[in-house]
Design brief:
The complex is a heterodimer of chains A (374) and B (634). Chain A is built from 15 helices and three strands. Chain A has 374 residues and is an all-alpha fold. The longest helix of chain A has 34 residues, at 270-303. The radius of gyration of chain A is 21 Å and the shape is globular. Chain B has 634 residues and is an alpha+beta fold. Chain B folds into two domains: 58-247, Penicillin-binding protein 2a (Domain 2), CATH 3.90.1310; 251-300 and 321-626, DD-peptidase/beta-lactamase superfamily (Beta-lactamase). Chain B has 25 helices and 20 strands. In chain B, the strands form six sheets. In chain B, strands 2, 3, 4, 5, 10 and 17 form a six-stranded mixed β-sheet that branches. In chain B, strands 12-11-20-19-18 form a five-stranded antiparallel β-sheet, sandwiched between helices. The termini of chain B are far apart. Classes of the chains: A mainly alpha (374), B alpha+beta (634). The interface between A and B is large, with 46 and 39 residues.
Amino acid sequence: MFQRDRLNSELSFFQKIQELDYTLLICIILLSIASLIVMYSTDGGEILYHTKSHFSKLVVFFPLMILIAFFNIRFWHTFAYIFYSLIIFLLIYVSFFGLKASGSQRWMDLYLFVLQPSELMKIAIILCLAKYYHRIKIENVNTLTSIMIVLTIILLPIILVISQPDLGTSVLIALSGLIILWLGGVKVKYFIYSLITFLISLPFIISFLKPYQKLRILTFLDPDRDPLGAGYQIIQSKIAIGSGGLDGKGFLKGTQSYLDFLPEKHTDFIFTLFSEEFGFIGSVGLLILYTIIIFRIIRIGALSRSNFSKLFCFGFAFSIFIYIVVNLSMVLGLLPIVGSPLPIMSYGGSSMLATMIGFGIVLCAKINHKQTIA
Amino acid sequence: MIKENSGIRKSDVINRRMFIIGAAKIVIFVGIVARLFSLQINENKKYLTLSDKNRIREWKLPPTRGNIVDYFGNLIAGNLKVYQLHIIPEQVENFNYLLLRLKTLLNLSDKKIQKIVKLKNKLKPWDSIIVSENLSWSQFLKVNNYLYDLVGVKPVMTISRNYPFNEMYTHVLGYVSEPNEEEILENEIVKERFVPGMKIGKLGLEKTLENQLIGINAIQRYEVNAYGKRINQLEHQKGLQGNKIRLTVDTEVQKLSAQLLLDKAGSISVMDIFTGDIIAMYSSPSYDPNLFLFGISHDEWQLIRNNPLKPLINKTLSGLYSPGSTIKPIVALSALENNIINSTFKVKCTGKTELYGQTFHCWKEKGHGYVSLKNAMKQSCDTYFYEVARLLGVDRLKTTAKKFGLGEKVLGQYFDNEKKGLFPNTDWKKNNLGKGWVLGETLITGIGQGYTQTTPLQLCLMTAQIANGGYKIKPKIIVNNNPLSLEDAKTSMELQSLQTPHTKLFNDQKNIKIVQEAMFSSTNEQYGTSYKSRIDDPKYQFAGKTGTAQVKRISMRERELDLKLEQIPYKDRDHALYVAYGPYKNPRYALSIIVEHGGSGSKAAAPMAKELFKLIIDRHDLRDKQTNFENINI
């Protein structure tokens, strides 16, 4: 056993390349190409700022992902708490010195690009909790101390992110964290209790929401109440998607998009544009691509011997799934508008960085799937 | 070992719980696909429409009004190209600067500027504001030169109503002008087709035929972006010009009428006695309808409004006059029809007649001596008709008058300003004035004074129906391009051949003949009141009856003074009337002339008939040829 451990830990570079999950890689590359095509369309059929920027980010982050994959998984296990602490620090830093834009303060200027630490927290929290549940004895999972510790780990970033304010990202962080709790074996009744508590305190929470957040929820419930104001985005988004039909309006022919009816078409509403131009077939195709990615990640998790890898892969797969579901539900008018990007497709460096780091660690887990972690 | 065990157990937990989530994921993804399906496949049409509604904006252009032509195809209401200046607010960068530039460029008044600002606040940003509706060519060039500096300004070439004969047809056609809110709302078609700058008929045929003339808007479709900026022009939907309307009128006759009534207040109507076609219908003075197209100026309006000859009143249809002696043919006919008199019945005229202590004067102070019907008509003896009226009674007279169209609208459906006039009887007085009829009133009704009020067109119709042998005709001013219904056509043929009676207005056609002969003698025999205006050439020879309607009671003093026309104040002078038909041998046209305060009918009105008949009859052959025309291309 010891022998095998050592053998595995000393995979050669060539072996590592062999061990990469090529299905996942190809899917990621396809997704990247799709994202570039859509970005090209948002630029009105020209290679302008968004396309160039998105492309350069891909060029930087894709190798970064491979680089991450080539580390030993133990390194990421060791690094997990440090990474989490670093992001917490950045969140605190941002809350004091961050860049302000449209009423919230969530960015920091790194000269080359603007970083949004809360996006990285989506990964950091999975990493951190995966390590925690990897190390804790199963008997101790449901002790009060343990529960208090994980709740602190989850609540700390959430409080920081909510105060930015950024409800969407904090919800996603919370969900990412909670899924690890679930996977880690926290008793079902705790989830049920907290859900009941949440529902009971919901009116109380709503009263604490900012007016624009309340408006979003009201608008979600009835988009037609202010079609040119708060309901505008969601109505236009539904029109764009609905008018796409079976095979779409055609590449670069999405009228809703190029005539500027779509809001935030580069970022949160990128799917709308894609769906308008490529229709139901294209949209389902994209969903299938995402599904393959998710199942590939789950498969890697299932293959992994270490619980850390398992927890991370499952957690990350779930996060990706949640991002997609929240984003699509939003543009399809099934959920209120919460700022949530579509992984890889949406324009935005931090989100892409976080996703690529996630993919990198997943690939790393694949390469090191026989590895155990003490 | 324990650690190992617990590790295995932990991974079991992880795997089991992962499986639960995996199942949930599939359900949720299926849900999303279902939602996509419902939006993109089931409701695709709805959203496609919404998307088109988003991106396509339509600009309706004002429709082109249909042309109106006279009987011979001469254009009497058409359309002209005009140069306009529009502002499209959404394209303007600096509105105040633009207004300042335009103000200096076009010499706009402060009031106009205020109006533009008001409009701007009222209209949607993509609706164009019309700054100037009718730019001169030089102004248009000037604007085009400075266009680079006038962002948001659009020089537009458009079409506008035009009346080539100016004031000639105003009372027939009316005019067009911008509608007010009420006018837009009350007409569905106008409401639907309205665009700023569109004009609708305000009066006359332009108003009553609005729905036929209005035309259909051309529509320009543009693709616009979310901010309303035009990106592409899409297909252009052509509009349709409104229907062409052909009138029965003859511009030459209309012109002559206008010329004859120049500087006078009055009216001339000419009618085809078989078809009821109105050949001319002119009310004098008139005014230029072109003035109203782009908003009439205050001064011009005051000039028209304050003209003592009242150009705004359509005297032909809305002017109410005592018919005076022009009623006498009807009185005679009524008496003959009711067997009160016959052609040999004689009355002695001593210049006046007394009834219950009241004196009724004949216009001829010395009297006419013993007069028969023919002579009484010829010399327009009042005493004779006092006596006939007394014998006849007003009620029987009214029955005949009504048959011939007095007290009824002639063209009511086409002119909402037409008046009915009034022919009194005993019931009418009781119901409306609450007093019993007095015999004296019958007497003055017999010479066309008193309560009787007629429009010139009614008198023309009355004359036409006497001239055609006593048949009812339906006057019309519009030629039906769709041929008349077979029955109508037959009727008109029957009337011309006179073989079978149509709606006859008489009991015995001999009576009509007697009246016709009497009217003939009035014009063509010596001592006839209009003898001086006669034409001997049988081709043009006409028969008529003069009338002189008092506008106020003549006092004894005035009777003694026997003032000349010029010595009487204009307001107090009698109205001169004349009704006639011709050619006598083979009648075809009837006319009525009224000259307000023109003095006696024989001096002021009858000479005009001479001129008119010459022209009308000269143009008869031409008109006859035109009858069968189908399409006049303009």
